[in-house]
From TrEMBL:
Higher taxonomy: Bacteria, Pseudomonadati, Pseudomonadota, Alphaproteobacteria, Hyphomicrobiales
Transmembrane intervals: 20-40, 47-63, 79-99
Superkingdom per UniProt: Bacteria
Keyword Transmembrane: yes
UniProtKB keywords: Cell membrane, Membrane, Transmembrane, Transmembrane helix
Keyword Transcription part of the UniProt annotation: no
Family per similarity comment: Belongs to the DoxX family.
Subcellular location: Cell membrane
Protein name, UniProt field: DoxX family protein
Organism: Jiella mangrovi
Length: 107
């Protein structure tokens, strides 16, 4: 979620702060902000995690992999980690204390 707020709301200030919403970075920021919030709340977790996992895969292959084939050298470790953590959430769901569980009466 923090990467999304940096891209869209310029908080905290950084290299990618304040990008246009109708750009590739803007679309990534929207997915990160909305998807991160939904996953943190446990609302529509599987769908949000699926979209976020795909976004992390695209981020790795477009931004990191062309620099160097090894993640430790191209800075793509976190993108790969998040991709697979989000993919795990697609299959496991949010858990017992999520809004999704409360909506289904499992809390």
């Amino acid at each position: 979620m923090e990467h999304g707020t940096q891209k869209l709301l310029s908080f905290p200030a950084g290299e990618h702060a304040g990008v246009a919403l109708m750009s590739l970075f803007g679309a990534a920021g929207a997915i990160e902000l909305v998807g991160g919030l939904l996953i943190a709340l446990g609302l529509f977790t599987r769908l949000a995690a699926f979209v976020c996992s795909g976004e992390m895969a695209v981020a790795y292959w477009m931004a990191h992999a062309p620099q160097n084939p090894f993640p430790v050298n191209n800075g793509g470790d976190a993108a790969i980690l998040y991709c697979f953590v989000f993919l795990l959430l697609v299959f496991t769901g949010a858990g017992a204390s999520s809004i999704d569980a409360a909506r289904k009466g499992r809390s």
